[in-house]
Amino acid sequence: MELLNGTGLWSMAIFTVIFILLVDLMHRRHRWTSRYPPGPVPWPVLGNLLQVDLSNMPYSLYKLQHRYGDVFSLQKGWKPMVIVNRLKAVQEVLVTHGEDTADRPPVPIFKCLGVKPRSQGVILASYGPEWREQRRFSVSTLRTFGMGKKSLEEWVTKEAGHLCDAFTAQAGQSINPKAMLNKALCNVIASLIFARRFEYEDPYLIRMVKLVEESLTEVSGFIPEGTTLIINLSSVLKDETVWEKPHRFHPEHFLDAQGNFVKHEAFMPFSAGRRACLGEPLARMELFLFFTCLLQRFSFSVPVGQPRPSTHGFFAFPVAPLPYQLCAVVREQGL
Ligand code: HEM
């Protein structure tokens, strides 16, 4: 009891602070000797946690990149991380040094659950024979089931029709289309795997969408745990040294002087190199068919009294739009 009174308490507090500062100093020495790229000075114990706005990570990283350069360091607690920004540096890391940067940090929950390397799936798996085998298997299975083929296009077109019907049912109202879009995407995967789709009210489909959403959030929570290298794809998609109007939707970015489509090397929403998205052909097909179908059938507007959708993303995997409302009105034929 005596120990917790007055001077005893003070001595204990001072001892604890000195102990923490010493441990912190040991970690800092490791950082100094390892010669990390520049970055903001980390706080003892917390690292740079208070210097980044977790609710708007892309903007925080954007400001840091302008201050410290395209490759800079941050510390999450005592864990050092290197953030890579803009086309040139990202290409160098993902493509030129692809072999050295294709690994993924161990996932603590996998260890706790005793998940074996062969059961880690593709996205989070370490770069090794198990990942290679799972990736090859996934690509060939997706192809067998129709990825990149006409048969899948029919499923996606059919689903786009159902999506349009769901929009029609709520035409003229202020809606958040997220749930409908997620159900349509889940149905495409269901078409691939089960060769059938589900009605949007079907409890099974609703459960599936919820599970996918939850698992994605979990993943984003675990990624930073062991991550030392963070590839900031947003900084490539909005690279001011590459795009004419980097912060605007500007279709001319992808058109030549004659109005023909041109590919742009900085357009890499599916990443690049060995760990690039393997579902890209399917995702592109879905985006094209869903968008064209919706835009042909409806005029979209911001409902009266609602703000314009924000261009800031919600920082998860993948980055998602912040909630927004829109109003879809059925187009008159020929307009
Ligand atoms: C618009 C939709 C999509 C976007 C923007 C997207 C984006 C990405 C990105 C940026 C990565 C790299 C992640 C990393 O570096 O760790 C990735 C990986 C991956 N994506 Fe996608 N993706 C999309 C749709 C899909 C679909 C439809 C599938 C499945 C059919 C899929 C399956 C995968 C897999 C399995 C990986 C891990 C690849 C590996 O680590 O080897 N994605 N995706």
Automatic annotation (TrEMBL):
Q: Enumerate the InterPro entries for this protein.
A: Cyt_P450, Cyt_P450_CS, Cyt_P450_E_grp-I, Cyt_P450_E_grp-I_CYP2D-like, Cyt_P450_sf, Cytochrome_P450_fam2
Tree of life domain: Eukaryota
Q: Which GO terms describe its molecular function?
A: heme binding; iron ion binding; oxidoreductase activity, acting on paired donors, with incorporation or reduction of molecular oxygen, reduced flavin or flavoprotein as one donor, and incorporation of one atom of oxygen
Query: What catalytic reaction does the record list?
Result: an organic molecule + reduced [NADPH--hemoprotein reductase] + O2 = an alcohol + oxidized [NADPH--hemoprotein reductase] + H2O + H(+)
Name the SUPFAM superfamilies for this protein.
Cytochrome P450 (SSF48264)
* Record localization: Endoplasmic reticulum membrane; Microsome membrane
How does it sit in the bilayer? Peripheral membrane protein
Coiled-coil regions, chain positions: none
- The broad enzyme category this protein falls into is oxidoreductase
Q: What is its main location?
A: endoplasmic reticulum
A GO CC term assigned to this protein in UniProt = endoplasmic reticulum membrane
Residues binding heme, per UniProt: C277
| Role, per record | Cytochromes P450 are a group of heme-thiolate monooxygenases. In liver microsomes, this enzyme is involved in an NADPH-dependent electron transport pathway. It oxidizes a variety of structurally unrelated compounds, including steroids, fatty acids, and xenobiotics.
Q: What is this protein called?
A: Cytochrome P450
Q: What lineage does UniProt assign to this protein's organism?
A: Eukaryota, Metazoa, Chordata, Craniata, Vertebrata
